[in-house]
From TrEMBL:
This is Olfactory receptor. Belongs to the G-protein coupled receptor 1 family. It is found in: Cell membrane; Membrane. It comes from Trichechus manatus latirostris. Pfam families: 7tm_4. InterPro entries: GPCR_Rhodpsn (IPR000276), GPCR_Rhodpsn_7TM (IPR017452), Olfact_rcpt (IPR000725). The gene is LOC101347131. Residues 48-297 form the G-protein coupled receptors family 1 profile domain. It comes from the Eukaryota.
Length: 320
């Protein structure tokens, strides 16, 4: 049978053993052009995020809750990008972009774990900015190590359990034939649509996680920024208001990029044309945002710039 390598037999029934990823493009020439572009993006993502983590760890002035959250965000971005980019890069050089059932399930689990953890982390960072602006005198007493450590652990556990429930509910379904995923990674909604069994339970699990974790985190962020706005309006001096706003501008930009692109992909009605648009938007939030996050938090951040200058100064002194 021609399709035997894609299927495995289970009694009188056959089930899918391999999925086929269509990738970003089926044009070989374009794939060869995209390979060095996305390889460069991946390497820059690793270097910038790892560099930011090391800078935060090496400079004592950055040993604060905000930069602890930021270093964890960079760690998530490294892992998130690494769960997708290496396979996508190898697929650019292949004629058949196949992925095994187990590998697809693993990629889904890791991606969902990291993306849902990032949702919770962005909410925790919004709360941190609210405390810093709304209660600056009590900030050190409120944001103690045990609290922000528990916030990080809580975000990771929520992401892990949510991802586990989604992955199990999706890959527990029966897949008997259709195995083409119109994407460059294992996208959960598309995989569920390929099932030959009733996907209702998986769809409900996906909806529940999206509402509780995704929109729940967004609600916390919006409430935090509402309180931040109210606190800024109470500041009498214009200089003080500008300084307060600048402390959360980078986080607000990161949240807008992350949620803006994700909502555009998963809330818009689907059609053949929108599938192509989804791929472009997915490249942005899956590939580009992990690269942009360290830049967003560094370019206008005087403390990060100061830490980098101090590090360069120390390195120069050691070399002399």
């Amino acid at each position: 049978m021609a399709s035997s390598r894609f299927m495995e037999w289970n009694g009188n029934q056959s089930s899918v053993a391999m999925f086929v990823l269509l990738g970003l493009s089926d044009e070989k020439e374009l794939q060869l052009i995209l390979f060095p572009v996305f390889l460069g993006i991946y390497l820059v993502t690793l270097i910038w995020n790892l560099g930011l983590i090391l800078l935060i760890r090496m400079d004592s002035h950055l040993h604060t809750p905000m930069y602890f959250f930021l270093s964890f965000l960079s760690f998530i971005d490294i892992c998130y990008s690494s769960s997708i980019s290496p396979r996508m890069l190898s697929d650019f050089l292949k004629n058949e972009k196949m992925i095994s059932f187990i590998a697809c399930a693993t990629q889904c689990f890791v991606m969902l774990w990291l993306s849902l953890t990032e949702c919770c982390l962005l909410a925790a960072m919004a709360y941190d900015r609210y405390v810093a602006i709304g209660s600056p005198l009590q900030y050190s007493a409120i944001m103690v190590t045990s609290l922000y450590g528990r916030m990080i652990a809580g975000a990771s556990v929520i992401g892990f359990l949510s991802s586990l429930s989604l992955t199990v509910s999706c890959f527990h379904l029966y897949y008997c034939g259709p195995n083409i995923i119109q994407h460059f990674f294992c996208d959960l909604p598309q995989i569920i649509s390929l099932s030959c069994s009733n996907p209702f339970s998986s769809q409900m699990t996906l909806l529940l996680v999206a509402i509780v974790v995704g929109f729940g985190s967004l609600l916390v962020i919006l409430l935090s920024y509402g309180l931040i706005a109210a606190s800024i309006l109470k500041i009498s001096s214009g200089k003080g208001s500008t300084k307060a706003f600048n402390t959360c501008a980078s986080h607000l930009a990161a949240v807008t990029l992350y949620y803006g692109t994700a909502l555009s992909v998963y809330l818009c009605p689907k059609s053949n044309q929108s599938m192509k648009q989804d791929k472009v938007l997915s490249v942005f939030y899956v590939i580009l945002i992990p690269m942009l996050n360290p830049l967003i938090y560094s370019l206008r951040n005087k403390e990060v710039k100061g830490a980098l200058k101090r590090l360069i100064k120390r390195a120069t002194a050691l070399c002399q």
